[in-house]
Amino acid sequence: MLKLRLARVGKKKHPIYRLVVSESTKDMYGNHLEILGQYDPHTKANSFNNERISYWMGVGAQASETVHNLLVVAGLIKSDKKAKAVSISKKRTAKIDKEKAAEAAKVEAKKAAEEAAKAAPEAPTEEVVTEATENTEVSPEENKE
Description:
- The chain is α+β, with helices and mostly antiparallel strands.
- The chain has 2 domains: 2-74, CATH 3.30.1320.10; 87-120.
- The chain has helices at 50-59, 65-74, 90-122, 140-144, and strands spanning 2-11, 14-23, 34-40, 45-48, 62-63.
- A 5-stranded mixed sheet has the order 4-3-2-1-5.
- It is elongated, with a radius of gyration of 33 Å.
């Protein structure tokens, strides 16, 4: 089966990836059928040969998950991004669920506040005016006089 994959090239600590077509069982660094472009992850710049990518996809080559996501961003594929193949621990999943629940509660509270604000202007409200009372007590120093 043919695959569109990224082959790492470039300097140490500064990778640049080539987009290559190769057999899925073979090494992509040595034996590949064609170079279709390159991708620089530092600048997020890519230079893909769109016609050849379309040709190889039409022939039946499948893109890896990362290449698929790059092609979606570039506009060559009209579908959703694929999920990354990263497993999330149970502890992290619980934390994410807790954050989502807190966010949902915040949104709900905000909606309730908006509803209360809408209902408040509709009902006539009487303003209660409280007058400030002056302190009429006499301090002991004033009492001596």
